[in-house]
Amino acid sequence: MHLPPMVDAGDVPGDLSDGPGNSRRTTAAVSAILERGVIPICIGGDDSVPIPIPRAYAGREPLTILQVDAHLDFRDEIDGVREGYSSPMRRASEMEHVERILQVGLRGVGSARASDVIDARAAGNLLVNARELRERGVSWLLEQDASRRIGLSASTAMGSIRPSFLPFQRSRRADSATWRRGTCCPGLARASPVPSSPNTCPPSIVTQCPRW
């Protein structure tokens, strides 16, 4: 297998007391990488991290986001915080350049409410739970968006992966996407090995590689 060269672009400087500033710096870092015609792979952080990453794609081709996660992440706010815990896919759906969101591996209730599920479907999101993915397969999933010639951003949360594969998970539940049968994730966009904070965005590692 031929693997393209990859370069570690370092960390985005983070300040635990400046969530909005962390967000702006993350968007700027990803934008700089995109301007060079390469694909950014961003690793690390809590639920505030996936929000500034797709913002960097504004002004480019329409974007589809593939989220592999046990939870819906479609809350509008929690305790007044709109860009943190459980909100990244809601914020992404509000971006003009995000055309569709595929949410795959859903299982745990998490913080989602019935109204959040209704809102996600009304926004045009495709919701696929872990059991459906196992029964129908990845090929079926790709066919749901096969006619769209657009960019794809993948966001993978650890809660969707089998705990025996990633034992540092904080929330271990049965019926994950890989609980009964191993699957291969398309790309790791974020991880949270330490407790999350709804107001902060810890430093992210941005790695770049050429377009395929």
Write structural notes for this entry:
The chain has 212 residues and is α/β, with parallel strands linked by helices. It has one domain: Ureohydrolase domain (Arginase, Chain A). It contains five helices and seven strands, in the order βαβαβαβαβαββ. Strands 5-4-3-6 form a four-stranded parallel beta sheet. Helix 4 links the parallel strand 4 and strand 5. The longest helix has 17 residues. It is globular, with a radius of gyration of 16 Å. The C terminus is likely disordered.
Describe the SSE topology.
Layout (H helix, E strand, L loop, with lengths): L6 E5 L7 H17 L2 E6 L8 H4 L7 E6 L19 H6 L4 E9 L7 H9 L3 E4 H14 L7 E6 L48 E6 L2
Parallel strand pairs: 3-4, 3-6, 4-5
Antiparallel strand pairs: 1-7, 2-7
Number of strands: 7
Estimate the strand proportion: 15-25%
Strand order of the largest sheet: 5-4-3-6
CATH superfamily, called what?
Answer: Ureohydrolase domain
Count of helix runs: 5
Characterize the main sheet: 4 strands, parallel
CATH architecture: 3-Layer(aba) Sandwich
Uncertain regions spanning at least 5 consecutive residues: 174-212
- Considering DSSP H and I runs of 4 or more, what fraction of the residues is helical? 10-25%
